């Protein structure tokens, strides 16, 4: 165990500077002064400002290895070979870095970081924790990523922090019996207990989706359902979220589709939003409708804590937080007709909107970022105790 004279030293590994959910969650947790000495190590990143500039100065930032471009594992045998070489080089650079050698525990924040982190940890006694933010399925990780996760990463993990029960269940078959495994929701910037509730006398004005712009996040399906119910009315649809990982073309496609459906003037594409609570205060309804099972859905937690009327796909992590008709409405996944029907129901029933808003804000188990950090520390301490 770590002596009382110093704090636990944790090295967080991440492979990108894109503002994805994993990166934003780690930044939020590091901003609340967690009770460990944190260091962040990444491969070399691109020039100019990046998402990690929001990390507090007290967190040591280190760079090691070579760049890890997005999508490097797709594109045929040659691309796969290059991906493997990059992982191997990154693993060696990670293992030989001063930050790795001085860490009491290493926590991989993304699946790619877990792949090279596990290779580095194979020749080290440093405890290795994997943060699982994706379901352990080929559809979510890709064929190569799934093979690495199930054959290399999870069998080596001393601990796993999964963002939902669904995520942990998908990983459990590949873990060693002695591995520490816990469900801790991602740090989502929640302000618990201070929601601005939707009132029964509040007209429906704005429906929104807070998610990065990506075909599987369900923006197209929500746009289609919105157009069927609200075209030509004084009700707006807002998409909040950046378009990382090369999805600028999909964003343009969404805008063209909105025009084609006759709702272009009713749709706002806001890009990445830093002030999420202020954004959500302007919505009555928040939608999550990913086209494959969402491991957690940080947006669902954000909607609940803000007291929005939550509409979510009835599968994956969101279904662990939303009880249909109690604190939100669940919709059969990948069914635009059903989604349109739920939006129509909410449009007609202001009392239902008010009831679901109040129940959402009172959802048990919602954690602010400081509580999420404390839960992480408890897992780290269990991993170290098991190792001792």
TrEMBL record:
Pfam families: Glyco_transf_4, Glycos_transf_1. Residues 204-360 form the Glycosyl transferase family domain. The keyword Glycosyltransferase applies. Keywords: Glycosyltransferase, Transferase. It comes from the Bacteria. The keyword Lyase does not apply. Residues 100-185 form the Glycosyltransferase subfamily 4-like N-terminal domain. InterPro entries: Glyco_trans_1, Glyco_trans_4-like_N. GO terms for molecular function: transferase activity. This is Glycosyl transferase. It comes from Agromyces marinus. The lineage of its organism: Bacteria, Bacillati, Actinomycetota, Actinomycetes, Micrococcales.
């Amino acid at each position: 165990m770590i002596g009382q004279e110093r704090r636990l030293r944790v090295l967080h590994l991440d492979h990108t500077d894109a503002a994805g959910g994993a990166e934003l969650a780690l930044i939020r947790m590091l901003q609340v002064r967690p009770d460990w000495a944190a260091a962040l190590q990444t491969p070399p990143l691109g020039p100019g400002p990046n998402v990690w500039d929001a990390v507090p100065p007290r967190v040591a930032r280190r760079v090691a290895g070579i760049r890890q471009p997005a999508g490097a594992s797709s594109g045929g045998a040659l691309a796969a070979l290059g991906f493997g070489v990059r992982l191997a080089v990154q693993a060696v650079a990670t293992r030989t870095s001063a930050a790795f050698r001085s860490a009491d525990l290493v926590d991989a924040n993304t699946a790619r970081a877990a792949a090279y982190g596990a290779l580095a940890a194979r020749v080290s006694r440093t405890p290795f924790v994997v943060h699982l933010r994706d379901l352990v399925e080929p559809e979510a990780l890709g064929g190569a990523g799934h093979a690495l996760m199930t054959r290399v990463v999870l069998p080596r993990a001393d601990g796993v922090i999964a963002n939902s029960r669904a995520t942990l269940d998908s990983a459990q078959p590949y873990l060693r019996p002695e591995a520490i495994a816990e469900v801790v929701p991602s740090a989502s910037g929640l302000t618990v207990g201070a929601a601005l509730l939707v009132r029964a006398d509040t007209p429906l004005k704005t429906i929104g989706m807070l998610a990065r712009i990506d075909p599987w996040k369900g923006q197209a399906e929500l746009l289609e359902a919105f157009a069927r119910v609200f075209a030509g009315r004084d009700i707006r649809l807002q998409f909040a979220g950046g378009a990382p990982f090369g999805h600028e073309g999909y964003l343009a496609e969404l805008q063209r589709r909105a025009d084609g459906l006759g709702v272009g003037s009713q749709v706002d594409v806001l890009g990445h939003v830093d002030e999420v609570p202020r954004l959500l205060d302007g919505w009555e309804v928040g939608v999550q409708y990913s086209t494959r099972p969402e491991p957690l859905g940080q947006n669902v937690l954000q909607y609940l804590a803000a007291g929005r009327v939550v509409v979510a796909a009835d599968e994956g992590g969101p279904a662990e937080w939303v009880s249909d008709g109690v604190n939100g409405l669940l919709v059969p996944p990948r069914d635009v007709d059903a989604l349109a029907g739920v939006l129509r129901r909410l449009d007609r029933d202001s009392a239902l909107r008010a009831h679901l808003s109040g129940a959402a804000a009172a959802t048990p188990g919602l954690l602010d970022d400081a509580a999420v950090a404390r839960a992480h520390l408890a897992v780290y301490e269990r991993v170290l105790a098991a190792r001792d």
